[in-house]
Write a structure and sequence with these properties.
The protein is an alpha/beta fold. The protein has a domain at about 25-170 and about 245-270: P-loop containing nucleotide triphosphate hydrolases (Rossmann fold). It is built from 9 helices and 12 strands. The chain has an 8-stranded mixed sheet, sandwiched between helices. It is globular, with a radius of gyration of 18 Å.
Length: about 280
């Protein structure tokens, strides 16, 4: 226990002996969710939402019921990737998730706003409360794998998710120039503080393959993801290329048409559940 402890565990990320109370929130009585995987990044713009969506698509393609909880309340992008523009329906005490073309269940702030372009200008506690409601008030229909798209960094929302949801593990997303810095280390250390296991590291924009000659170019510098994974004892790594076709599909809301063999090994590991 810290010398400055105020005994308010709900606002603390320390895992000390004095923590006697569980802050896990119950699902709606009509909901069922299996494994919960949080996808995090130390900073924005590295492709975290892309990886979240691709993993959900991969698990759905394998015959599982996949879901995406978009915890990035002020910067939601998940509906756009899937081409979902309809609003969520619900009643006084429940919300129904929207579904994508292939049946992936989804909840995001953008399906609750009157207009998709309306900004969400809320303070931290209100944002954290909205994330909790995405877990407690939504009737998730027999979900096997839920992927939580986290906002970047280590603020209120990650703390809320780790304390309120039964997170089974994390996937950390980074870009090549970031992996050598302390930003990834902060994300990994946050997971350790909350007793959560990092299941894999995904390096997005790792390289570019020339369409003319087939040569591989490290546009953002040489990859160091393997050294980083070894340093933190993380067994699963994936390197995603810069692919203009993927970008076009995402802009068109057709992410479910993308198949990414580079994520297959990580998906296998998540599917086995040995964590």
């Amino acid at each position: 226990m810290s010398e400055n402890c105020n005994h308010d565990c709900s606002s603390c990320g320390e895992n000390c002996e004095s923590r006697q109370q569980s802050f896990l929130k119950p699902l709606h009585e009509g909901a069922a969710v299996g494994r919960v995987i949080a996808v995090v990044s130390g900073k924005g713009g590295v492709g975290k939402s892309l990886v979240t969506s691709l993993l959900a698509c991969e698990m759905q393609r394998r015959g599982h019921r996949a879901a995406v909880l978009d915890a990035d309340i002020t910067g939601p992008s998940i509906p756009q990737l899937f081409g979902v523009h309809e609003g969520a329906r619900g009643g006084e005490n429940f919300i129904l998730p929207v579904e994508t073309k292939t049946g992936i269940q989804m909840m995001s702030m953008n399906v609750l706003l009157p207009k998709e372009t309306d900004p969400v200008v809320w303070r931290g506690p209100v944002i954290a409360g909205a994330v909790e409601q995405f877990w407690t008030d939504v009737i998730w229909n027999d979900v096997d794998y839920m992927f939580v798209d986290m906002p970047p960094g280590t603020g209120d929302v990650p703390l809320t998710v780790f304390q309120s949801l039964p997170v089974n593990g994390l996937v950390v997303v980074a870009s090549p120039q970031e992996l050598v810095g302390m930003i990834v280390e902060k994300a990994v250390n946050m997971a350790a503080m909350m007793n959560k296991r990092v299941l894999g590291l995904v390096e997005n924009m790792s390289y570019f393959v020339c369409p003319d000659c087939g040569s591989r170019h490290s546009v953002f510098g040489q990859s160091r993801i393997d050294e980083t994974a070894e340093r933190f004892g993380i067994g699963q790594v994936a390197k995603l290329p810069i692919n203009p076709g993927w970008a076009a599909s995402c802009d068109a809301g057709e992410i479910e048409s993308i198949q990414v063999p580079e994520l297959a090994q990580l998906a296998d590991y998540i599917e086995r559940g040995a964590y």
